[in-house]
Design a protein that fits this description.
Elements: E1 11-14, H1 22-52, H2 59-86, E2 92-94, H3 95-128, H4 133-136, H5 139-150, H6 153-164, E3 174-175, H7 182-186, H8 194-227, H9 232-260, H10 269-293, H11 296-315
Parallel strand pairs: 1-3
Antiparallel strand pairs: 1-2
Helix pairs in contact: 1-2, 1-10, 2-3, 2-10, 3-5, 3-6, 3-8, 3-9, 8-9, 9-10
């Protein structure tokens, strides 16, 4: 990274929301801290409850546990550093720290795309082949699908992060974002990045479109199967089993697609930050809430667990 006007970058400065008044940043800090704690607690409860209660040992809840674990990891990668930048006492991030954050951001982001597709396939089998569902989605199949969902993140994150951070950086080291995302870091590179940008665009399209097409195919078949159910009650029950997943998919794909597929001319740094907040901060918090409020089985388990805890407290002298 030496030669000409190039300088070795040892660290980056995350500008985050520094353009906002201090009072607004303090308010954002409190808001995101509450959201962060709710996210960790909500997703941890989903994992613990679905593990503890035998009624929630079905394949759907197995994949839901994977999603909750993924959302916890996603939050731990992004939010603590963002909270530090809002307080203005921790705006710097080392070169290695930035690369590590970007690596795990790609890893968890790619894996979420494929895990949501796997969950859609699970709902397809449950609705379209209910009698064969336990046989098709046995423990071995579940494990294979989970591995297939988690694996793509490794090569994608490794190639994209290693390639980007092999470029020379020059001039400013200020990243106009609240975390080390690829587009703002790429702007600091002083070399020809055309090939990398082509790879990044093609890779993003494939990573988003392949799972998205699988989800659309699954739900097209699910919709066709639901329409064939004669009773209104049966239709409502069938739709309720996958409505939560549809809502989560919509939140994740709409917000991430708006971030990475909008024309450059319409992309201001502040608007990209707001859109990034929707899938890095808001969606991980909403997932456990959506699955809890829209799922009677989960609500009943939470209710029973709460009553047991109250009973233990009342029995304590």
């Amino acid at each position: 990274m030496a030669g000409g006007n190039w300088t070795r970058v040892e660290e980056f400065i995350l500008l985050s929301f520094s353009s906002l008044p201090t009072e607004v940043q303090s308010l954002l800090f409190l808001t995101f801290l509450i959201i962060y704690l709710v996210t960790l607690m909500g997703n941890s409860l989903i994992i613990l409850v679905t593990l503890a209660d035998p009624m929630l040992h079905s394949p759907m809840y197995f994949f839901l546990r994977n999603l909750s674990f993924l959302e916890i990891g996603f939050n731990l990668v992004i939010v603590p550093k963002m909270l530090g930048t809002l307080l203005a006492w921790d705006t710097t991030i080392s070169f290695l720290g930035c690369a590590t954050q970007m690596y795990f951001f790609f890893f968890f982001g790619v894996d979420e795309c494929f895990l949501l597709a796997t969950m859609a396939y699970d709902r397809y089998v449950a609705i379209c082949s209910p009698l064969h569902y336990p046989v098709i989605m046995n423990q071995r199949t579940r494990a294979k699908l989970a591995i297939a969902s988690w694996f793509p993140g490794f090569p994608v994150a490794t190639v994209q992060t290693t390639w980007l951070f092999s470029f020379p950086f020059c001039g400013t080291n200020k990243v106009n974002h609240f975390f080390c995302d690829s587009p703002p870091v790429l702007r600091l590179v002083c070399a020809d990045t055309t090939l990398f940008e082509i790879y990044a665009i093609v890779g993003t399209i494939l990573i988003v479109m392949i799972p998205c097409l699988l989800i659309l195919c699954s739900y097209t078949r699910i919709a066709a199967a639901i329409l064939k159910i004669p009773s209104t009650k049966g239709k409502h029950k069938a739709f309720s089993t996958c409505s939560s997943h549809l809502l989560v998919v919509s939140l994740f794909y709409v917000s991430s697609s708006l971030t990475y597929f909008r024309p450059k001319s319409n992309n201001s740094p502040e608007s990209k930050k707001l859109l990034s907040l929707s899938y890095t901060v808001m969606t991980p918090m909403l997932n456990p809430i959506i699955y809890s409020l829209r799922n009677n089985e989960v609500k009943n388990v939470f209710s029973r667990t709460f009553r047991k805890v109250l009973g233990l407290i009342n029995c304590t002298p």
